[in-house]
Amino acid sequence: MDDASPSYRWGDPHRRRRFAAAAREERPDLALLCLLVEQEAAAGEEGCGERAVDEAQMELDRLAGLLPALLRGAEPQRWAEALAELLGGRCGFHGVPADYRRLESSLLGAVLARRRGLPILLSVVWIETARRAGAPVYGVALPGHFVVGFGDPYGHHVLVDPFDGGRILSEDDAGLLVAGATGAPLSPSVFSPAEPLDIVLRVLNNIRAWAAARPERSDVQLWAVELALLLPSHPARLRFERAELLVERGDFARGAREMEEYAEVVAVADPTVAESVRHRALAARAMLN
Q1: Residue partners of 237: CB distance under 8 A and separation at least 6
Q2: Among 62, 86, 158, 179, which is least packed, fewest CB within 10 Å?
Q3: Burial of 27 per CB tally in 10 Å (0-12, 13-18, 19+)
Q4: pLDDT at 9 over 50
Q5: In whole angstroms, what separates CA 32 from the centre of its chain?
Q6: DSSP 3-state assignment of 48?
């Protein structure tokens, strides 16, 4: 699914209902949500249905089964080393800069098949494999570079970088990653565990950014926005982004209507922004003539 891929269909009500329901579970299934994102991306392609979801889940089960049984109760360092040996070493999961240019680097099933992907999707593979094996594992949403933690996030823990094959990171290493991505110093708060829905939203944000850099792929940006809007918590401005995309894709009436609805939402907090959005809606309606 690179830049030459055909346009995808989106908006299947069954897929959308299932994604919304999975996002509202008491304990959201991170792997399932990522695989449902992939279903949206691959809509209409052969092998993109329930069987593909089941096969990906089984592959995660298989990888977890390859870990030594005696790891339960082991120290975080031992878990980190065992996962690095299996996933980074024997299985070859890692990333390279070129992966940032591929949509499939943000799709869990494709990452499982290719053994390549963005830091956050490789981290999902690590988290889901380790979780199935009983590891004290969690995601760490460093700005610009997602990593994985083992142990107690507020006590003794070990950080690893799945993008680099599972290299163990010191706090200085993590600080360099953050500084390289953002230029900002490291804050202790960035080491807090990332919740599954926050991870899924970040995956969708990556897909939106990928598509926004490719105007011919506004279809991908649109479905990524629409899935993000189905999450229980999401940035309100996504509603305006969706309206803009509808106008861009020629659905002027619906885009204008959604801009007007968004203007009503933001009017109390920021009347100036609301007025600007209303002018954009008028311009969109003018395109109907």
Answers
A1: none
A2: 62
A3: exposed
A4: no
A5: 12
A6: coil
